[in-house]
Amino acid sequence: MKPMFSIVTVCRNSAAVLPNALASLRAQSCTDREWVVVDGGSNDGTFEMVLASAEPLGTCISEPDSGIYDAMNKGWRRASGDIVYFLNSDDMLFDANVLARVAAAFAREPATELLVGEVIYQYPDQLQKRRSFRHIDSNSLVFGDLCHQSVFVRRALFERIGGFDQRFTINADYDWLIRAFRSGARVQWLDLPVARFTTGGLHRRNFAKLVAERRVVRLQYVSPFQLWLGLMRSRTTDRVNMLLGRGRAGQLPLAMGEQ
Asked: To 10 degrees, the CA torsion angle through 243, 245, 248, 254?
């Protein structure tokens, strides 16, 4: 019998951070899960740590890949569970009942293809911010953002719309989410944190590339003028809300060009 959840972790030389992610997974009260690990050929003991974890393993491979989205595509294709979730090696599930709450939410609305929760952003200076993405829809996502750590996906949705476009080396998850929303996927919102997301990763280390590539992604869906106008509206709304002290249910103000 296939598990309900496939928790997919892609990693490479992550021995220093993986224990926290693994601990958050092992603590889950819902045991109807498998752990799918796609390791990029680590040489720091990461793969040995996975094999010794005692976490129920689905597919577990260690081999070179052509980038993070190649690894993520390997992960969902090897997942046998009905619901796929990507748990980064330096992130954590929020608490021990996340999977149980998500399972109950899918049971309440069986037609759900995407379930989007809230995320706690953890910054290097120990600052934490809670973000909600409930304001996002198929139109506004092109001018905004959506943390993939907030999203649980029916595996059938990957089969319907395809995987991550490897032409994009830093924004393929963003592009996939736009495609998912625009495909008419049934979305359910969970007004509870599901993950702790560590900032300062690949996106921050390559910020100029993030912005340039994100523009290319967006221009697949809107014209240059529509993009300019939509970004101006989005930034103006965010600034007004920030000045009024209300924000979007915990959404963080973003740097110019980051959306």
From this structure: 50
Residues 154/62, Cβ–Cβ less than 8 Å = no
Helix (H) or strand (E) holding 244: helix 224-244
**Residue 234, in any domain of the structure:** no
Whether the pTM exceeds 0.85: the reply is yes
Q: Where does the chain show beta strands of DSSP type E? A: 5-11, 33-39, 57-62, 83-86, 92-93, 114-122, 128-131, 151-154, 187-198
pLDDT band at 127 (very low <50, low <70, confident <90, very high): confident
Please report whether residue 71 resides in a domain: yes
pLDDT per position as a tens digit, 178-199: 999 999 999 999 999 999 998 7
Q: Is residue 160 part of a domain?
A: yes
CATH, residue 202: 3.90.550.10
Tokens of residue 255, six digits: 């740097």
Q: What is the pLDDT of residues 161-170, one digit of tens each?
A: 999 999 999 9
* Tokens 């600052």 belong to residue: 127
- Please check whether residue 242 lies inside any domain of the structure: no
Query: Can you tell me the distance from the alpha carbon of 84 to that of 203, in angstroms, rounded to the nearest whole number?
Result: 22
Residue 29: both structure tokens together: 């009260």
